[in-house]
Amino acid sequence: MRGMIDEITAALGANGLILRGGFLFPDDEGGPDGASGEPAKSVLLVGQAGAAPWPHFLRWRGQQPQAIADPLDTWSREVIGEVAQEFGARVVSPSDKPYLPFQQWAVRAEGLRPSPLGILMHPQYGLWHAYRGALLFEDEITLPEFRETIHLCDTCVDKPCLKSCPVAAYSTDGFAYQACLAHVRGANGEPCRAGGCLDRNACPYGAQYRYPPEVQAFHMAAFAGP
User: Do 27 and 102 belong together in one domain?
Assistant: First the structure.
């Protein structure tokens, strides 16, 4: 089994992706359908740390029609799907409908907890990581259990992530989506459009994994819409 995990890791790494842990579905829970339609017994999460997939995505993007919808989701589904086919798994994505509980799966797979921004805080990557898909297996695929780590937000006294947004989009009351969207689209939203969320960038953890400005601008453009 260790050999298979190593092979999956290598296959994902060819596109800058990484294995983000996994777990077995309990018998009384049952998983989503696997590749053949039988309930999956195991799930392995796939994602990224920092912006490692970006160059691979850009090369692919340059070969696609300009009008393609949701290009990053499409690329992720395609490259993870190739790995799924090679290893007899079914690929699912966070954007698939009906939505699957990816955030809950991530908590179970890696033991992470949400930051005040809602993004899961990673002990190494900070807020600069993402989940791009998952591999569902109808066999039991086991990984070493995660080690319990400190939740970095518990050690952060100043909480700069709640003080840097000019419209206070994030607070202890949650995310003010409409206020954020209006600001990003408005005349004063250029810093956010060009360099990403100011609250997220204010977090001191995982700074070496921070997405470059062009990557953050890409995600912000997707958030803001046409």
Answer: yes
Looking at the structure, tell me whether residues 139 and 186 fall in a common domain: no
Please tell me the number of Cα atoms within 13 Å of 163 on its side-chain side. 6
> Looking at the 3D structure of the chain, how many domains does it have?
2
DSSP 65-96: -TT-SSHHHHHHHHHHHHHHHHHT-EEE-TT-
Per-block average pLDDT, block size 10, for the chain (226 residues)?
Answer: 86 97 90 94 97 98 88 96 96 94 94 95 97 96 80 95 95 92 96 96 97 97 89
Same domain, 66 and 7: yes
Q: Residue 35, SS3?
A: coil
CA atoms of 204 and 206, how far apart (whole Å): 7
Angle at the Cα of 21 from the Cα atoms of 117 and 98, rounded to 5 degrees? 65
- Which residue has tokens 């992530």? 161
Look up the domain containing 118 and give its range: 2-150
